[in-house]
Design goal:
Layout (H helix, E strand, L loop, with lengths): L5 H20 L4 H4 L68 E12 L2 E3 L2 E4 L4 E4 L10 E8 L5 E9 L3 E9 L4 E4 L2 E4 L5 E2 L13 E8 L4 E8 L8 E10 L4 E4 L2 E4 L4 E3 L11 E5 L8 E3 L2 E4 L10 E13 L2 E4 L2 E4 L4 E3 L11 E9 L2 E11 L9 E12 L2 E4 L2 E4 L6 E3 L11 E10 L2 E9 L3
Parallel strand pairs: 1-20, 1-26, 3-6, 4-6, 9-12, 10-12, 15-18, 16-19, 22-25, 23-25, 28-31, 29-31
Antiparallel strand pairs: 1-2, 1-5, 2-3, 5-6, 7-8, 7-11, 8-9, 11-12, 13-14, 13-17, 14-15, 17-19, 20-21, 20-24, 21-22, 24-25, 26-27, 26-30, 27-28, 30-31
Length: 454
Amino acid sequence: MKTMNPYRRLMLGLLSGAAIALLLSCGGGSEAGNAISLGLGASGTPSAAVGADAPAGNGTGTSGTSSGSTSSDAGGDTSTASNGSGSTDGSGVGSGGTGVSADAAGIGSADGLGSVILNGLRYNTDTATFSVEDATDFQIGMSARVVGKVDADFTSGVATQVVSAAELRGAASAIDLAAGTFVVMGTTVSIDSATVWGDGNGLGDVTAGNIAQVWGLPSAPGSLRATRVQVAPALVDPLVTGTVQSLDTLSKTFMLGQLKVNYNAATFTGIDAPSLANGLIVRARGVAPPVANMLAATKVQGWYAIPVSDGIAVQLAGVITDFTSRGAFKVLGAPVNANDAQITGGPAGSLGNGVKVEVDGSLSSGVLVVKKLRIRNVPGTGGPASFTLIGTIGAYQSPASFRVRGQPVDASGPGVIFENGTAANLSDGKHVTVVGDRVLDGVLIAQRLTFASP
């Protein structure tokens, strides 16, 4: 075998190294040249780390214990929201991730699970802690406050904390089927097409004198828009949420709607007694029903806290109050300016007191300056209702009985649209997106079911 001269080998090595160096200095070698990249947020700035500190004003308003991040449900669902693309997955809801950078807090009701969809925005909850009172787990229609990060367009987010508790629990009275209302301890509860019925089929199942439990969005003093109703709750101790009125610090009483609350012996969480003020939304809890229209409160809790720092991204769902113009009204007691908002779901002219909306924006000098506003319900006209589940099928028995993220689903109706498959493809372990417009007796009635692409 012929060997190379050592001097010649040395010279060839030097020439080869020089050639490689010249190639790299000119931008050659696409793989090497593209190996380094920076993760950028929507504005072109480095994205904040997932799980970073919550924004200012993140008081939870509840005292429930944390139950950790989401886990698999009884049906075997272990799916979590994607944290990579920010694209949609058939639900019309962003899948979470790209450019998620702004400190944010969302307050509203859960219109989907996968991980948590609040006011139409899907939050990844892989690293979030959950604190749930008045229920064993978090379910569609429950009110909640989500703290985390969102992208600039309010299409996806990453949650660090999810807090939820019921707003009202007590004996029902003054049931008005025509008006779609009933009363619990002096608070008028109104329902709409998006009200979730956890164990009933509608207002006809609410019985005068029986205990009802309601999750909802406070509107005008003494009024609550129900987002979820349980007609036979496991708990019976009284609970009422509303706007403080007629505060009397000497007698230690205030009014919530038509109910007088005595807080003389109450403990305070999320708020302290000196901070009580007219116009503040609070939860009051007791152990015995009101006597002579007076509730002896054992606990007073601050409701879901809305941040106050400029620049914080805020999502709110609620009923408009104090409306004077498109640029001046309130949602959940927070001042709102929607002059420059993109408005969907109905004409801007339909905005007014009593209209249910979702607003996305940022705080400026104590005012929520809205980027997007979605009209969800106009009194006398109605509005769209949609609930979304994203996850794997579990506890499958038939198209009329299976679960996604623990939520029972019925996809057996004649009008159900199947995408990327048929009803015959339903089985445990299949990843699906389910969209429906009603939850009756705790079951989501599916309108569309999309199988994940192979």
